[in-house]
Amino acid sequence: MTLLTRRRFLASSAAAAAATAFRPMPSQAEPVSTRLVVERRTIEVNDRAASVLGVRQPNGTPGLVLDPGEAFRTRLENRLGEQTIVHWHGQTPPPSEDGVADTGYVSPLAPGEVRAYDFPARPGTHWMHSHQGLQEQLLLASPLVVRTTEEVRDDRQEVTVLLQDFSFRGPAEILADLTNTATDTATVHQGMNHGSMVMAPAPAMGSGVNAARIFPRSAEVKFPRSAAQAVAE
Ligand SMILES: [Cu+2]
Fold first, then answer.
1. How far is the CA of 30 from the centre of ligand 1 (A)?
2. pLDDT for 180
């Protein structure tokens, strides 16, 4: 154990003070980035609580809505106990900011990691979703809407609806059920002998997710109780 001498303490304090003094102060014009947090959340489906994943702002707003000309400037925080990465679907950033780790340009976010993104946003009604394992099937998805000048000028009330497939069964269990028929005895045998995970190719499950914006004519709008459209078992 090293004891900190008074002299060394003073020296390091002076260095810290100098570093503070020379650090440029953020100017008022410095753009603010929106925080997006990947975390576990609880939803209610058919009067039952379900633990799923999600990506939302600290105030609970799911995903992101940008105004015309606004840059996609966010800080993504991984509050899961596992790796994650979020694909900004419909956007065209450089590969390093695309949110897809499979391409090899970027690694997933480790637990606790915060990563910054900053690129020109592409207008349209899009969505963001995990590109890691079966997280998207655990509802790790949110709307990503970039409004156009025309839409703002129209001044209509917008309602964003995100439809997601849901089951009380875990996605891994469902996938195993779906792929069992395709797994022959030899594959299972090999997997057991070599102690390796045998991952059968995922069937065309489809994302089952569609983001849509509705422009109601009436001012009377009923918001859905939950974003999840339940398919009860
Ligand atoms: Cu995508």
1. 30
2. 85
- CA 131 to centroid of ligand 1, rounded, Å: 7
CA of 89 to the centre of ligand 1 (A): 4
What's the 69 CA to ligand 1 centre distance in angstroms?
A: 22
Listed residue (36, 30, 92, 27) closest to 62, CA to CA = 36
User: What distance in angstroms lies between residue 130's CA and the mean position of ligand 1's atoms?
Assistant: 8
For residue 128, the CA-to-ligand 1 centroid distance in Å is 7
Confidence category of residue 191, pLDDT binned at 50, 70, 90: very low
The rounded percent of the chain whose pLDDT value lies above 90 is 61
Taking the centre of ligand 1 as the mean of its atom positions, its distance from the CA of residue 74, in whole angstroms, is 17
Ligand 1 centre distance from Cα of residue 129 (Å): 6
First vs last Cα of the chain: how many Å apart? 59
- Nearest in space to 137 (alpha carbons), one of 113, 189, 173: 173
Mean pLDDT of 38-54: 97
Please give the structure tokens belonging to residue 161.
Answer: 């609806």
pTM for the model stands at 0.68
Strands of 79-219, DSSP E: 86-89, 114-120, 124-130, 141-146, 159-163, 210-214
Q: Where does residue 206 fall: left (phi above 0), alpha (psi -120 to 50 degrees), or beta otherwise?
A: left
How many angstroms separate the alpha carbon of residue 87 from the centre of ligand 1? 5
pLDDT at 189 over 50: no
- Domains along the chain with CATH numbers: 31-214 (2.60.40.420)
